[in-house]
């Protein structure tokens, strides 16, 4: 009988980030990771994922629903026991937080 191999925290974090890179901002055609909306991804010993993130604007129309959608997608990553998303507004998101690739994609150079 095969044993299930538990992912290391580093491997699990890489898988979570890969999932975050498949989730796109509803207003800007760039994934939320490259946009710089993800401030932190912490994984506990029990494989619980805690994400701190922001949105491009406090009045964003998806502020109520988007965190739950992200929790569901991250929670579906093999090895994740639970996922929690906390919206934070400090520091305030700016275009400078976007990756260079995202800035290039939007023609900001």
State which percent range the strand residues make up.
15-25%
Largest sheet: 3 strands, mixed
Radius of gyration: 15 Å
The CATH topology comes to: GMP Synthetase, Chain A, domain 3
Explain this structure:
The model is unreliable at 1-5 (pLDDT under 50). The chain has helices at residues 9-20, 66-75, 100-105; strands at 38-43, 48-53, 82-87. The chain has a three-stranded mixed β-sheet. By secondary structure, it is α+β, with helices and mostly antiparallel strands. The longest helix has 12 residues, at 9-20. The termini are far apart. Strand 2 (48-53), helix 2 and strand 3 form a beta-alpha-beta unit. It has a single domain (9-105), classed as 2-Layer Sandwich (GMP Synthetase, Chain A, domain 3).
Layout of SSEs?
Layout: H1 9-20, E1 38-43, E2 48-53, H2 66-75, E3 82-87, H3 100-105
Parallel strand pairs: 2-3
Antiparallel strand pairs: 1-2
Essential attributes:
109 residues; alpha+beta; GMP Synthetase, Chain A, domain 3; 3 strands
